[in-house]
Amino acid sequence: MTAVRPESGSRPGAAPGASPSVSSSESATGFPTGFLWGAATASYQVEGAATEHGRTPSIWDTFSHTPGKVRNGDTGDIAADHYHRYREDVALMKELGLGAYRFSVSWSRVQPTGRGPAVERGLDFYRRLVDSLLEAGITPVATLYHWDLPQELEDAGGWPLRDTAERFADYAALVAGALGDRVPMWTTLNEPWCSAFLGYGSGVHAPGRTDAAATLRAAHHLNLAHGKGVQVLRGLLPADAQTSITLNLHQVRPLTTSAGDADAARRIDEVGNRVFTGPLLDGGYPEDLVRRTTPLVDWEELVRPGDLETIATPFDVLGVNYYTPTIVSASDGAGDSRDDGHGASDHSPWTGSEDVAFHLAPGERTAMNWAVDASGLHTLLTELHAAHPELPLMVTENGAAFDDYVSPEGRVEDPERIAYLHSHLEAVRQAVADGADVRGYFLWSLLDNFEWSYGYAKRFGAVYVDYASQRRIPKASAHWYAEVIRRGGLPG
């Protein structure tokens, strides 16, 4: 079967001859010399200006305006108003000493129907943003897709439709043509697992569909979009520009040492991780996943000749997003916890492994009820390096939500977040010491923002946002992170 991963060998992920912008030699702090210290946001979560200058609805506009889909009926119509306040936000970034800012481009702001020419006023916002970043000495890192598909493309079939991958390639060309001379680092997709399995499986993310077969079709077309996107970027960008994809890889652990729990962990690894890393890095989809899901999808029809070669187009850096480990067991049918950390739904996102049980890890938790466990990040980074030693890595999201508030003195003290960040940066430092080629770290998030189906109930930002006034207040963690950046590493 053409879709199946070969039994032996793996292909490099880094482009031949790519010259990374950061040296892998360690400095005195334990982080590589030139390590990129940044923070990240996403367009629908922060920009607002939902109907300005030609922007049309994305699937997240539609989803958030659908009653019952988002907590408190919140929407991203205004969000953190970054569209109007980006200069203020760039000034904050400069004050914090950020070396890089990872932002995403709103597809429906640039190409409202997902087809045809760009709206120049939409591109102008990103031109102004990039120019402001460069003037402040901050490296712009552009993500082409962070979940906000133009609604017209969803109406035509969305990611389960092959044509959406073609439309993505056209869109990538528009953005690269406008910004390619000034943006040195590009990411095709952010967390395609969420787009496919939360958007089309459990329905807790936009577009809110619950169709197991659609998840697999969407995953393949997202993979294909990435490959086509990298090919487009390579044809338009300067030779030294870097390309990447960002994956929210699940650090999967069996609850016990039993054979049943080990099998459950393997199955979740397949549908949570290797459905992407298989074709991206190893030449095909996992054989067991294909076999389990053949009743849902005709893989011979789905994966056409040439698809795997396109998906495996070499790229320069693998982005890794990590927040908490995933603990699973074989289900005993006795009402095991179904809390997989991705929101409540009557429909499982774990296509082909719906019977696996998920368990909450012990210990301290964040406001998302996620366990604080930095060892999972260390494991991910070292295992990825062992499997693909030629592929540079970058932590593109890591952070935590806590119940932040402004004190009577006007400060936001968040010692739990500082402790979280410290432990996870120590995990990165240890992974580097153990040989992993990690080139940078992006804190999630720069600003408090619209947290998807949780609305404004969860705060991940290093900078507190008073949504009524749009006032920005750097939290204690922002000042702590600024000191880390200044030192180039953790406090002694």
From TrEMBL:
Region called Disordered, residue ranges: 1-26, 331-351
Entry protein name: Beta-glucosidase
Pfam families tied to this protein: Glyco_hydro_1
GO molecular function: beta-glucosidase activity
Source organism superkingdom: Bacteria
Family matches, as Gene3D superfamilies: Glycosidases (3.20.20.80)
Family designation: Belongs to the glycosyl hydrolase 1 family.
Reaction catalysed by this enzyme: Hydrolysis of terminal, non-reducing beta-D-glucosyl residues with release of beta-D-glucose
